[in-house]
Specification:
alpha/beta; disordered C terminus; about 50% helix; Undecaprenyl pyrophosphate synthetase
């Protein structure tokens, strides 16, 4: 860690780190436009942000990190030349980062409709995943050709197929746990914290089921300027919040009384 990261990390409680952080990486185009550069320059610059963020998360012991890398909507709303560049950039990233992932004991996974990506990209994805499969540290998940609504559609298709194999709908009991077991993220805990860069205040069809109780942290920082220190600042903000899950929070007066009583109780020990 550099000095800035260390200063923030020392303010964190290691016992209350998020188990799973999800990040909506946004702002590459604006970063490039402000510098009078083509949009692809922003995407290229964003690779350094991925590297810094992933390494910092792994070093402090975050169990799972999911990055929203490419949405289903990107096929329709981005110029073909930009999409082709993103696919080539992804392949280069996967090849270049295997060594770093292994050095940091990171296992690489994917979510999304991977089968719809170009075959050359699928091959690179499989090779990178296989090269890190034995790692036992943080799980890095890249959301590629991902849509939360499509994920839920695929989950219900899977549920219907399971029902057909097991006696039909009359024998089929659906609950939240069962649906979660058919989502792409069934091997992961739901995110505790979702970070969005560039100041936008929306989820953009990302992990809609899984983020039901996640803390949301929005930073004005554009993704190419995001580094490990900004990740730690997001975690610091997360630790400052009281997570109630629909219940009642602590009464401020009770918390104050408890704080006053605690030294007296400790003195009697």
């Amino acid at each position: 860690m550099d000095r800035k990261e260390s200063d923030v990390y020392l303010r964190l409680d290691p016992a209350r780190l998020p188990k799973h952080i999800a990040i909506i990486m946004d702002g590459n185009g604006r970063w490039a436009r402000r510098r009078h550069m083509p949009r692809v320059a922003g995407h290229r610059a964003g690779v350094a942000s991925v590297r810094s963020t992933v390494e910092t998360a792994a070093r402090i012991g975050i169990p799972a990190l999911t990055l929203y890398a490419f949405s289903e909507e990107n096929w329709k709303k981005r110029p073909r030349t930009e999409v082709d560049f993103l696919m080539r950039l992804l392949c280069r990233y996967l090849k270049a980062e295997i060594k770093t992932l292994n050095e940091n004991n990171i296992r690489l996974e994917y979510i999304g409709r991977k089968q719809e990506l170009p075959e050359s990209v699928q091959r690179e994805m499989e090779e990178a995943s296989e090269a890190t499969r034995a790692n036992t540290g943080m799980v890095l998940t890249l959301a590629l050709n991902y849509s939360a609504r499509s994920e839920i559609v695929d989950a219900f298709r899977s549920l219907a197929e399971a029902a057909a194999r097991n006696g039909g709908l009359s024998h089929f009991q659906v609950d939240e746990q069962l649906i979660s077991e058919h989502l792409y993220t069934r091997h992961l805990p739901d995110p505790d914290l979702v970070i969005r860069t560039s100041g936008e205040m929306r989820l953009s069809n990302f992990l809609l089921w899984q983020l039901a109780y996640a803390e949301i942290y929005v930073t004005q920082t554009l993704w190419p300027d995001f580094r490990g220190v900004q990740l730690l600042e997001g975690i610091e903000e997360y630790q400052s919040r009281e997570r109630r899950y629909g219940g009642l929070g602590r009464d401020p007066g009770q918390a104050h009384d408890h704080a006053k009583a605690r030294p007296h109780a400790e003195a009697k020990r």
